[in-house]
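Changelog entry: the D-3-phosphoglycerate dehydrogenase record was regenerated in this release. Current contents:
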Amino acid sequence: MLRALLLENVHPVATEILRHAGFEVETRSGALDEAELIEALDGVHVLGIRSKTTVTRKVLESSPGLVAVGTFSIGTNQIDLAAATSHGVAVFNAPYSNTRSVVELALAEIISLTRRLSVRDKALHDGVWDKTADGAHEVRGRTLGIIGYGNIGSQLSVLAENLGMRVVFYDVQEKLSLGNARRVRSIEELLEVADAVTIHVDGRPGNAGFFGSDLFERMRPGAIFLNLSRGFVVDVEALRAAIESGHLAGAAVDVFPTEPKKRGDEFDSPLRGLPNVILTPHVGGSTEEAQEAIGEFVAGKLRDYLATGSTMLSVNLPNLQLAPTGVGRIMVLHRNVPGVLAAVNQVFAEHGANIEGQVLATRGDVGYVVTDISDVAQRGASAKLQEMATTVRLRIRDAFDRPEFPPGPAAGA
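Regenerated structure tokens:
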């Protein structure tokens, strides 16, 4: 039986989908460290995680039965993607399912910081009636600067304009401006005009620590700052200094360089206790609606990959959209070198196999050839394909929809 391990309180809908597809599913509430994860993955074909569990090269090397990993989140920086690819492990994420939740939180925080609501709230909780308009502004007519104009940044752009804000954005890639948003040529240009700056970048290593004291100094006096992307992209000590000096009027931070592993753990940060600073525990995408949508989306991708070999929207393998055909299917993930397809078909020809359908896609160093063929396992062709030096991973579905997972060759073969 196919086995799945789901960690970190993945939404129950994921368990339901996988069990309905024939998986034996084990769920655990917290994250696991490297040694714990290696032990837990014994006999497991599919792993589901969120943001706290790290899937290292050692984990992948120690888990030969692992076929796919689903990150029930947007980010995949907690997985060694190069190692996953070299071991033939497909990785899926949820690039769209929680974008609305993040955008709504960003908008709420922009309004709250601009009106200094956290300061007014604290005063009343302390028993002080501090009714004043000092430092409070409307967001209408103010300029929002968005660093990173992807799925979240572009959606935020549209909704901010509907509130009457002007929008400028910076992205390292060419992006189509939505509405009246204006692209700027540099972060420095954005910082010169923005009353509110919000970061929505991915977790690539090059983004680590890029927003530090030099960029905070370039921000307009009295501006506000938001980070709902990755904790390691911002120098939090520099942000604290900018708040304490009065250069910035406020900040909202949802992600941190170091975060507790589970709910209820102690949290510490240089940003605690600062005025007009909103701290949230990495909940940008944590709404009930988003978590259910993520659970449904990622679990569906994992189910489809195991059932049909479909890799559509995989973050590390060539993308193929595949449907069941009612005949046997052999799936070869291979090194992307010349002559592989010809060699695969030569094996089929030598065994008198009749190919009923075949597709191939490549991505970087790997290729993926999927062949529909009757009785492929019984004809002996699969053993020959497994022995090929270019084969990274071989998977088979027979005509009765039963999976087989022949052991793959050594990494780097």
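The domain at 318-398 is CATH 3.30.70.260 (Alpha-Beta Plaits).
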